C-alpha cells in the first residue's frame, strides 16, 4: 500500500516496512525477504519482536541505525550496526531526517498470572511515532488501549494489534482507533503467534471513523 509516497508493507505479525526516501523496518520477525534498512526500530525484547535472525537480514553494518527499547540492550550487544541507540518512553531521536518518538506500550488487562501483565508498564516497552516528510506513522508495539495514546497528536497511519491474549482485542483496538482518529488504521499482531485473519476482518467491521487497510 502506498501512502503519501511511502510504500507500506506488513509481511508478518508486527513487522512493518516503510519504504520511501529511507527504509524503515519495525520489529522484523520471520520475514524471508527483508530489505537492508536505514533504520530498524525494536519495540521490546520478546522473541517475536527482537529476532536476531531477522535483524541480520535487515541490518547493513555500514548504514543501519537501530533504535530499541532499553530492555533490548543486552541482546543487541553483538549486533553489527552502524549505530545502536536505546530509548525509554518519551525519548525522541532524529535519524537521517526521520523523527522517532518512543511512546509507552503496556498492558492494563492482559495477565500471565494475577497481577503480572505480559507487558508491564515498568518494563519501559515502547511504541513508535515515526515522522517521514511530515507524515506520522504510529506503531503501537504490544499494548492495550492506554491513556497516553490520546495525547499523541495527529496520526496519519496507525498500526494496531487486534489478536487479544497479549494485546488489544479487535474490539479494544477499534476503541483506540476511535479515540486517536488516524486517517488509516492497519491491523497487526495476528497470523503468527496468536490471532487470525478473522480478527483483522472483525476489526475492520468495527471501525467507523477512518479507513482500514488489511496490509499483507
Order of helices and strands: EEEEEHEEEEEEEEEHEHE
Structural class: mainly beta
The name of the CATH architecture is 4-Layer Sandwich
Summarize the biggest pleated sheet: 7 strands, mixed
Lay out the secondary structure.
Blueprint: E1 2-3, E2 6-12, E3 15-19, E4 23-26, E5 39-42, H1 52-58, E6 65-69, E7 83-87, E8 92-95, E9 98-104, E10 111-113, E11 116-117, E12 126-132, E13 135-139, E14 157-161, H2 170-180, E15 184-188, H3 197-206, E16 211-212
Parallel strand pairs: 4-5, 5-6, 6-7, 13-14, 14-15, 15-16
Antiparallel strand pairs: 1-2, 2-3, 3-4, 8-9, 9-12, 10-11, 12-13
Helix pairs in contact: 2-3
Features:
216 residues; mainly beta; Metallo-beta-lactamase, Chain A; seven-stranded mixed sheet; 3 helices; 13% helix
